[in-house]
Amino acid sequence: xxxxxxxxxxxxxxxxxxxxxxxxxxxxxxxxxxxxxxxxxxxxxxxxxxxxxxxxxxxxxxxxxxxxxxxxxxxxxxxxxxxxxxxxxxxxxxxxxxxxxxxxxxxxxxxxxxxxxxxxxxxxxxxxxxxxxxxxxxxxxxxxxxxxxxxxxxxxxxxxxxxxxxxxxxxxxxxxxxxxxxxxxxxxx
Length: 189
Fold this sequence. Notes:
Structural class: alpha+beta
Number of strands: 15
Number of helices: 4
Shape: globular
Distance between the termini: 26 Å
Largest sheet: 6 strands, mixed
CATH superfamily of the largest domain: tt1808, chain A
CATH architecture of the largest domain: Alpha-Beta Complex
Number of domains: 2
Order of helices and strands: EHEEHEEEEEEEHEEEEEH
């Protein structure tokens, strides 16, 4: 990720104004604004597959899948970002400072970009775990057929399940992600 103006501090409102006039999506944290990576055909295709798979399984249920157009904010830490895939069940809870920003995803999925995967695995995941509603998040590799599911346990701890074949059960939303389906229709070389 690249900071828009190194050293400049933004308010959350200034960040929202920047996003409103930009074709680029940004992440906001602690006064800093960073351009988000992604946008490769591989990244987009994997996210689209997950959205399609979850959308079909959630049809008729009180949950809805969202694209990266939905901004999510972690109220406890202030991080505002655009996960590749979010699922919200029941009512969408909106940020008190911005009605277009959600605060209550139950599940998030991120397609790992080579340039940001360490950040996504460590710092960003730590932020997501602070969202009270979040029950699971999935990391999707672009470099190999590999899904990682982090699930919240009843005692607040987290369990990791990994799949290179087969499927992962997303119990929190009653769905499953098949490795074969997530990685279907690869782009020609």
